[in-house]
Structure formats: C-alpha cells, structure tokens
Amino acid sequence: MVVKSAYIHIPFCVRICTYCDFNKYFIQNQPVDDYIDALINEMSLAKTRNLETMYVGGGTPTALSIKQLEKLLKAINEMFNINGEYTFEANPDELTAEKVQLLKNYGVNRISMGVQTFNPELLKLLGRTHQTSDIYQAVDNATTAGIESISLDLMYHLPKQSLEDFADSLEMALKMNINHISSYGLILEPKTQFYNMYRKGNLKLPNEDLGAEMYQFLMSRMNASSFHQYEISNFAKDGFESEHNKVYWLNEEYYGFGAGASGYVNGERYTNINPVNHYIKAIKNDGKAILTSNVPTLNEKMEEEMFLGLRMNQGVNGQRFAEKFNQSMDNIFGQTIERLKNNGLLVEEGNFIKLTNRGKVIGNEVFEAFLLNE
C-alpha cells in the first residue's frame, strides 16, 4: 500500500483550553526551534515524497512565530510534493493577514479553524483566546489571501449551552464565506481542566438527551443548507470534503510526524513519544521517536474497516471489503449487520451498509457491535 498522506503535530498553544486532551504544551519557555529541527529530521526519513494530502495540526500550528512557521513550511516543501489538499489548523486570533499569506505562499490551500462557539461567555468558559470578532477577521484574512477551503470547528453539549446557543452559532457559521463545518459534542476526558472541575463538583454538564437533541438538530439544519453531511461530525459544500480525514476513515496508511503523533505505515500502526524534550532527544539519537508499534491482526483490520468506514455517510463498501480481505463482509459480520438493520441502526444500499440517522446518534454502540472475539 502506497502512503499518500502525512500528519504533522505541533504541540504548542498560547493557552491551554479547559476541555482539550490532545498532546499540547504552553508555548512559553518550550524548545520550539529544537522541536522544529527534530520534526525536519524525522520527516527526512520518510520513504514517500509524493503526497496527496498533508495535515498540520496540534496544539496550534499558528502559535508558531512567523520565522518558525516559515522554517517549517520551507522544509515541508523541500521534502514533499503535495499534489492535493494541504491543511493547517489555526486559532482565529492567531491567523493574521501576514501568517495566512505565508501559508498561502507555501501552497497551503485549506485552513481548519478552531472556533468552537460564537458565544462570548462560552468562549471564556472553554479557555479560548479569541473573541467572536476574531472569527470574522480570520475568515476574511484567509479569503483575501486566496485560501480555497475554509473549515470551522463548532462544539455542542457544552456546560451552560442551550440548544438556542448552539443554533445561533451554527447560523452565524452558515452565513460566513466558508465551505466546511466540523461539529463535535463535548467528551469529558481525564487530565483536562473540565474533568477536574467536574470531579470537584464545579462543573455541571447538560444531560445526554440534550446532547442527542443538539446533534439531531445539527443534522437537520445542515441537511436544509448548502452543506451535505459526509461523516458523523463533518459537513461540506460540494467538492470541499476533507480528503485527508477520509484517509483515516477509509483505513488507509499515513505518516505521523511529531511528539505524540500516530501513523500507519507498511501495515504497522505506531505512536510517537509524547513529551517534547523526550521526542527531541530520541530523534537526535536515532532519527525516530516511536513509543509503541503493532501490526494489527486480520480481525483487528476488519473491525477497523467497519467502525471507521461506518463513520462516513457512504458507509462500508462490501466489494472493497472483499477485495481487501479476501472474504465477504457477510461471512464475517452478517449476523451483526442483520441485527443492527432490524434495530433500525443500519441500512443496506447496493454494495454499501451505512448508519441510519438513529445509528449516528448512538454511533459508538453500533461500532462496538463489530468487535470480534479473537
């Protein structure tokens, strides 16, 4: 299998959000320049140079200074030919006209912006550094620079958030000059500020029913707009789906570069060392910083094919499954598929099986049904 995609992790943030459990560090006093050097060294060992998608995420890549950003962008361009989608994540208040023009100059054609909400009180509660006005300015900056694709992240099921709050944010996003929206319900993750607040009784979460209602509203509202749903949490105008994320959902291979990054190359899944200093040291010592790696069993690969593929609206292609694993989807999962169809959670269309809207609401329960006993 040819690796056609790469993910680069920038683990630095100007401020740590209350809900975030990604591998990230407050940027002040961090060895950022050494980290970029280590990243460049790690990328230099990649066997593939021609890529169809590149995704730079975090943390917050736009937390880098102009000089640091240019060094990274230049190195990426020298090492890879990116013949397709090239995404950078950004915080609205950090996406200055100068930074977005720099990204554009080096071939970045997609920006994914962490907006989360347009409600000022909720932005403060989430620990975000931007104001509502920064969102409009950032989209304007990206549009002016000629960035072809702009995506906004929105969250729902937040503390103190009503359905009306979420609906207002969604309407504001839909009126903007963007072509992609990702929307996720809050998951309370250990090691986050929100989790600690919740354990101490200082944070009250909306009930699960309201979360499900918000998600159903999201699907309904987006269905009535110029955006179409193509994955459980992702909506796009025609021609603007995230090609990079499809690589994950189609269970294809990709490089993962940087501290805490995960990759899937030559049939092996791996995860890099998390702490920045340990990552830098490991790269200096032997050019790689792999913490764990494993080759999935056949059963694990088939499970992944199902619960990753079912995230997409198109569902899982039975013909592709048979070609990939030399056995039919029905032979392996036939009874499970029938049961889930009878429960109104799956539907079969041609060669594809896909989630119903009800199935999307309780997606994780559906995915668990495809776990095989080794």
UniProtKB/TrEMBL annotation:
Highest taxon in the source lineage: Bacteria
Coiled coil: none
Calcium among keywords: no
Subcellular location, principal: cytoplasm
GO aspect biological process, one term: porphyrin-containing compound biosynthetic process
SUPFAM superfamilies for the chain: Radical SAM enzymes
One Gene Ontology CC term in the entry: cytoplasm
Keyword Cytoplasm among UniProt keywords: yes
Subcellular location: Cytoplasm
UniProt xrefs under CDD domains: Radical_SAM
Record key words, sorted: 4Fe-4S, Chaperone, Cytoplasm, Heme, Iron, Iron-sulfur, Metal-binding, Oxidoreductase, S-adenosyl-L-methionine
Ranges where the Radical SAM core domain occurs: 1-225
Function: Probably acts as a heme chaperone, transferring heme to an unknown acceptor. Binds one molecule of heme per monomer, possibly covalently. Binds 1 [4Fe-4S] cluster. The cluster is coordinated with 3 cysteines and an exchangeable S-adenosyl-L-methionine.
Sequence similarity: Belongs to the anaerobic coproporphyrinogen-III oxidase family. HemW subfamily.
PANTHER family: COPROPORPHYRINIGEN III OXIDASE, RADICAL S-ADENOSYL METHIONINE DOMAIN-CONTAINING PROTEIN 1, MITOCHONDRIAL
Annotated protein name in UniProt: Heme chaperone HemW
